[in-house]
């Protein structure tokens, strides 16, 4: 490998490490703030565990989409779902940040990663729609592990990402499970 190519790859890798310090609004089960890197890792793990159920899709592409989807947040951070608003320019900002992050890469790798990011953002391919659905589901799964904040917090989960998770019978089946657990959490607040 050419030295400048290796240098660009390693510079990107070192910059991408910032995702470990990008904090999301959720926490781990012990109450520690969750990083976006942790979310992306568990999203990829979820997809890996479902590989046999996902017949007829480009599975390596799906994994790539999951690993790359939030990398732009390494620069300007995560915007919690309840705070996201239509027209907030969040997607354009994340794309600009992602391009900044990719700047040290050799052009072919930068173009490849940007194409993956754009595919996820566009959500037009089967793999991108699955990635979006599983992204929402992983977030809700994490919310169920957190120290319970409030019943209203869980009520938000019942509608969060519904347009994405109703995409396919498998994602709907998983969503039904996670909604049942969410309703149990809401009921537990009523009992206290």
In a few lines, what is going on in this structure?
By secondary structure, the protein is mostly helical. It has helices at residues 3-16, 36-49, 59-68, 73-76, 90-102, 107-122, 126-145, 151-159, 162-165, 169-191; strands at 23-27, 33-35.
The helix tally amounts to 10
Query: How large a portion of the residues is in β-strands, by DSSP E?
Result: under 5%
- Distance, first to last CA: 62 Å
Shape: globular
Strand order of the largest sheet: 1-2
Give the C-alpha Rg. Answer: 18 Å
| Biggest sheet record | 2 strands, antiparallel
- How many E strands? 2
Average pLDDT, all residues = 92
What percent of residues adopt helix (DSSP H or I)?
55-70%
Output the helix-strand order: HEEHHHHHHHHH
Q: Uncertain segments of ≥5 residues (pLDDT<50)? A: none
By secondary-structure content and strand pairing, the structural class works out as mainly alpha
